[in-house]
Amino acid sequence: MVLLYQYGGFLPCFLSFSDVCEALNVTVSPGPTVRYSEGDNATLYCHISQKRKTDNLLAVRWVFAASPTQEYLMIKMTKFGSVQYYGNYTHHFHKQRLHLLKEKHGTMYKFLILSLQQTDQGHYICKVQEIGKHRNKWTAWSNGTAATEIRVISSKSPDDPTFKKKHEAWKFFEDLYVYAVFVCSVGIISVLLFTLVILCQSLLNKRRST
Fold first, then answer.
1. DSSP percent split of the chain into helix, strand, coil, nearest 5
2. pTM, 2 dp
3. CB neighbours (10 Å) of residue 199?
């Protein structure tokens, strides 16, 4: 008998001598690192394959890790398909920001994070458990884990391509502005000099006439 972690406690994984409690093949995409701009919507996919039995059910959790020592359970889809929210990501507090959807007959789960913020930057871990009935009891048979990293680029960050384009455009207009000021200054000085010359000539002509 092998013990597996399930729903806050340990559930037995009953196996015969010929069976092996294999791990699920879980992958997360995109990855291993994906960049988003602040305010964008992030879409992560958790792919599951190599289930022990086709009729077994899956429980999917998404965990946020701001650092290797800090993990926070965000959202979970139970084996019956209901979605539960945890901690600061409760249904009432972040109702519009987090969504977990099942796709492709339960072999892929789509996780949506809306309106990314700087505090959303970190590692996102998809933890999956395969659950089936054994002697009329729900039993965890296998599990798997995969992760990806989200980096949120601030709109004011020099690493943001949009920021670079805006900076280059602003630099161009700034140079153009300096050039225009220079041309205008030269023009004004030329007009003043021309006016001064005309004035001097008129004064000389008056003196000669007198």
1. 25, 45, 30
2. 0.63
3. 10
